[in-house]
Amino acid sequence: MRPSAALLRHAESALRELLAFAAPADQTLSRYFREHRELGQKERAFVAEAAFAVLRRRRSLEAAAGTAEPAALLVAAVVRVLGLSGRALEGLADPELVRRIRAAAADALPDAVRADLPDWLWQQLEAEHGRDPALRIAQGLLNPAPLDLRANLARTSREEVLERLAHDGIEAAATPYSPAGVRLGAKPAINHHALFRDGLIEVQDEGSQLLAWLTAPRRGEMLADYCAGAGGKTLALAMLMRGSGRIYAMDVSAKRLAALAPRAARARVSNVHSIALSGDNDARAKRLAGKLERVLVDAPCSGFGTLRRNPDLKWRHGPAAIEELAQKQRRILQAAARLVKPGGRLVYATCSILRAENEAVAEEFQAAQKEFKSLSCASLLAAQKIALDTGERLRLWPHVHGTDGFFAAAFERAS
What's the pTM? Predict the structure, then answer.
């Protein structure tokens, strides 16, 4: 669409709020749209796409525009990312600025700028993976993420979901790894669809879905989703248990946990019990020590594996925050491990791409907790008939697997 001057002003105003980084970008944008209800669906889509393009490619757009001024970055985004022509911007943007943006070459840019990452994050990725692999990782994180669904296999089949979506004119295909995954060709308002309202599908990235199969609960068992949040993985675990056993959804945020109840009701899940933890030494959690067959710890992390969806994170987190998160992850993993019974399984996961939050935490835990032995994630998935071999640890990458970036390590407590 050719934007009007008023629509560009809205996009610039929204972008200025986003670049303040006072809150997560999706929350900031949702608030902006609530305050400007005169914007229609297509107009909101343009504002969101243009503003998020700047967040994704901020450094290369600054280089092309020659300035960090939001108005210029917005023009750079609509030209270089959204593909608007100079003619479409006649009377709306400075012709000289448009000419300069269109003429800018990317070849001479420093690697961190080409990767659209802060210097420190680029240096970390390059040190861990090498220059060319790091550039491929960065490029994969720049592309917008698809919309993935999880079919509720306790009540339907993936085939039935695909048939229903096709009947309703929604392009969709099975994901390559998750047995319940469905990937949409576009991003319709799926929360208004009958499949969603009836609890037959949930929105969940394929990588996140795989954590449930890695945990592999069996019917009748007791397990915990230790950092449950709003319960996406809790519901995936419940699906595999077919309503039997008991799942403890634990989180330090009662507000996040509150979102689980209506989701569970919609999915017709009744074996979930929520516990709002007071901390690592919560009394209710202590009473479950050594009693659970499975414990999943999807730990709070930088979220850099989700930069396709949350590009603001790379500008909001610095190296000091990563060290603080790693310390928190170690504490959480140790606390969660106490719940696992002999012979039980512990899965540690993050949606980070950094070794400090992933392998380093898992290796330190294993060195300190001799009663836990490492399990091969590839073998565990193969036992679930999922052909995905990234080695002993699960490592998922957007540019390789089409998922968000995920890490997981699995352990078994000695009996």
Answer: 0.94
Residue ranges and CATH numbers for the domains of the chain are 5-109 (no CATH), 206-413 (3.40.50.150)
Parallel, antiparallel or unpaired: strands 147-151 and 181-184: antiparallel
> Quick check: 46 and 53 in contact, CB under 8 A?
no
- What DSSP string runs through 261-324? HHHHHHHT---EEEEE-SSTT-HHHHTTTT-EEEEEEE-----GGGTTT-TTHHHH--HHHHHH
Catalytic residues: 351
Angle in degrees, CA 68, 71, 76, rounded to 5: 75
Q: Which residue is it, tokens 């071999």?
A: 389
Q: Cα–Cα–Cα angle for 162, 164, 167, nearest 5°?
A: 110
Quote the CA–CA distance of 142 and 145 in Å, as a whole number.
9
What distance, in Å, lies between the first and last C-alpha atoms of the chain?
63
Does the pLDDT value for residue 1 go beyond 70?
no
Distance, CA of 367 to CA of 364 (rounded, Å) = 5
Structure-block tokens of residue 335 = 């606390």
State what percent of residues in the chain have pLDDT above 90.
90
DSSP type of residue 192 = G
Q: How far is Cα 353 from Cα 404, in angstroms, rounded to an integer?
A: 10
